[in-house]
Structure formats: structure tokens, C-alpha cells
């Protein structure tokens, strides 16, 4: 193992030590360095960087937690086996986002969405965007690695193409879920706007009915002489009758106005 560490450039060692290093493929005369950053979904979303050193004789995985190189079985099959396991877990665990979005969709259609709908929507979308962004670079790096080794004898082309296809499949699934989230957001906004329009409509009707009444009450409440019905015994009756008539006339006008708008 000491020979492998002495073989690697110091800058490459720093890259392998970096837990958050993005995916990269770097070819050299004596060795090649491959770092693949892959999302890991457990209770929360994380990303792991898998660093490999490939020589003509063998391949080595850099264990960041234990800070050492681990010799793998074969030049190409060792990295493939390790990456394939991580990607299989990603494909299976990514299904939780589809289930979460389906639950959000069902609650929205049944008008049972809670007040945290937008917060949950944003959290899910951010996580899927992070997965898509990380996998986009990792898939590009894997494509470079495959293209570089495609003419090498003994290179398991089909195995690595399968890994690349798994990455592409996860990205396609991520894009599909993102499009569903965008649709849910549009539908949520449409429902919210509809509720808001109904509230505004009710307030408009109330304002249209009570505005004439306020004007009439203000008129009879003036401290001036010669007001109508001020001297009669049934002046209050006349005033109330006028106000009720105005309420009826205003209501009929609002209904006619509503039908005209709907048409």
C-alpha cells in the first residue's frame, strides 16, 4: 500500500481526502484517478465521494473514514462492484420520493392539504434537484471514463454501461418527479387563487350592499335642519323602508352583474 501512496500526486491525495469532492476522472502515465459522487438516501439526503486509483495491475479504493487505501479485486471489476452496490441502493431508496409526491397529490386533490404543503413541497423539490445535479456530473464523468477505456483489453464495457444507464434512469425519474411537483404547485396556486377570488367576491358583495346604506345613514345623521321624516311620527319606518329597498335593489344589481361577468 505504501507504494501506491508514493505513486499518487499530492494534489490527487488531497482530492481523495475531500469528502465533498465532485465527480472527476483524471488519467496519468502510471495511474488513473476516478472519483464518483453519488447521493445516498437514508433518513436524510447525503452524498458520498468514492475515490479509486487504477493502475495497470490492480485498483484501489480510498476509504475516507479509515484514511487508507483498500486493494480491490481486479483493475476494473473492483470499482464496478462497489459503485454498483451504492447505485442499486439509490435506485431503491429514490422510490420514497415518488411515494411522497403521490401522497401530496392525493391530499391536494381531496382538498386535505395541510398548511405545511408548500414547505413540504419545497423540501422535496430541493432534495430531488440536488440528486439530479450531483448525478448529472457523475454520469458525465462515467461517460468520460468509459470512452477512455473502451479500447482497453479486458475492460468490462457492458458492466460500466449498465452503471451509466442506472445513473441516467435515476435522472430521468428525478426529472419526472420534478415535473409532477411543478404541476402540483400550479394546481395548488390555482386552488388558492380560486379561494381568494371567492373571498374577494363575497367582500365585494358586502361592500356593494352596505356602501349605499352607509351613505343613507350618513345623510340622515347630519346635524342640519329640514331633514326628511324628521318631524313625522313614522319617520324611522320610512327611513328603514328606504334602506331595505336599497338593499334589495343593490342585491339585484349585483346578481345581474355577476351573471354578466360569468357569461
Automatic annotation (TrEMBL):
Keywords: Cell membrane, Membrane, Transmembrane, Transmembrane helix, Transport. It is a multi-pass membrane protein. It comes from the Bacteria. GO terms for molecular function: cobalt ion binding; cobalt ion transmembrane transporter activity; magnesium ion binding; magnesium ion transmembrane transporter activity. Pfam families: CorA (PF01544). The chain crosses the membrane at residues 200-222, 234-254. Signal peptide: none annotated. GO terms for cellular component: plasma membrane. It is found in: Cell membrane. Belongs to the CorA metal ion transporter (MIT) (TC 1.A.35) family. This is Magnesium transporter.
Amino acid at each position: 500500500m505504501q507504494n501506491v501512496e508514493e505513486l499518487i500526486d499530492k494534489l490527487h491525495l488531497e482530492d481523495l481526502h475531500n469528502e465533498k469532492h465532485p465527480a472527476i476522472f483524471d488519467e496519468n502515465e502510471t495511474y488513473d484517478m476516478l472519483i464518483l459522487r453519488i447521493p445516498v438516501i437514508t433518513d436524510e439526503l447525503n452524498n458520498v465521494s468514492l475515490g479509486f486509483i487504477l493502475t495497470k495491475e490492480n485498483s484501489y479504493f480510498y476509504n475516507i473514514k479509515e484514511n487508507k487505501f483498500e486493494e480491490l479485486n481486479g483493475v476494473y471489476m473492483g470499482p464496478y462492484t462497489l459503485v454498483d452496490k451504492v447505485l442499486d441502493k439509490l435506485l431503491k431508496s429514490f422510490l420514497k420520493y415518488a411515494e411522497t409526491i403521490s401522497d401530496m397529490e392525493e391530499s391536494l386533490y381531496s382538498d386535505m392539504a395541510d398548511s405545511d404543503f408548500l414547505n413540504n413541497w419545497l423540501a422535496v423539490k430541493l432534495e430531488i434537484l440536488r440528486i439530479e445535479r450531483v448525478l448529472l456530473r457523475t454520469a458525465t464523468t462515467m461517460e468520460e471514463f468509459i470512452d477512455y477505456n473502451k479500447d482497453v483489453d479486458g475492460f468490462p464495457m457492458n458492466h460500466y454501461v449498465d452503471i451509466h444507464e442506472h445513473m441516467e434512469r435515476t435522472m430521468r425519474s428525478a426529472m419526472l418527479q420534478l415535473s409532477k411537483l411543478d404541476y402540483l404547485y400550479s394546481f395548488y396556486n390555482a386552488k388558492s387563487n380560486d379561494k381568494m377570488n371567492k373571498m374577494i367576491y363575497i367582500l365585494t358583495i358586502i361592500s356593494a350592499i352596505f356602501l349605499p346604506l352607509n351613505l343613507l345613514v350618513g345623510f340622515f345623521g347630519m346635524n342640519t335642519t329640514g331633514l326628511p321624516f324628521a318631524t313625522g311620527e313614522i319617520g324611522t319606518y320610512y327611513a328603514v323602508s328606504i334602506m331595505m329597498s336599497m338593499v334589495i335593489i343593490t342585491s339585484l344589481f349585483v346578481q345581474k352583474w355577476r351573471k354578466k361577468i360569468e357569461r
